[in-house]
Amino acid sequence: MEKKLNNDKALVVFSGGQDSTTCLFWAMKRFSKVEVVTFNYGQRHVLEIDIAEQIANEQGVKHHILDMSLLSQLSPNALTSHDVTITHDSDVPNTFVPARNLLFMSFAAALAYQIEATHIITGVCETDFSGYPDCRDNFIKSLNVTINLSMDVNFEIHTPLMWLNKKETWQLADNLGQLDYIRNNTLTCYEGIPADGCGVCPSCILRNKGLTDYLNEKEDLL
Fold it and tell me: How many CB atoms lie under 10 A from the CB of residue 25?
């Protein structure tokens, strides 16, 4: 017998960064029940988990933390090791963690099954995807089919940022009334500095350029 899920309940894959926090507010506008899941995979900065927990508490959503530390053993890279210098000078940057989104989405689906949530939201994006193959739309669509077949359910994976660049992601945050909150309370920086970050790592450059572009465009329209 097919498991009955709650069609008004969502689970957000949540890191406490700009993208996943934008997705959290997006989900809270659309579903009456929202929970979040954060994965502890031995990431470079444990502060990421603390910030995710703080945001979840402030927004009043249940926060699940799943141990995925095996991932750092299988795929040591710049996001899981302080000994590796972060570089983005190849087609696939060394911040790419092989199988990360495959495993994260699979475990998120297992949790969604347990809490009876129909909807799974992730902040992956093909427009500004930095060369990560597991952020592409065709991967997510394929995985959605596979997960549904594996559990005989009808999950719906949502990717509200898939076709947005960083400027448009900031615009979405503003439309949701949360631009200042997301700017000041999230952690995107590869060096583990919250809010506007270090300003020089690839993640900060992308985030801050998008913010500047959006604010300049908004000012021009006034």
Answer: 20
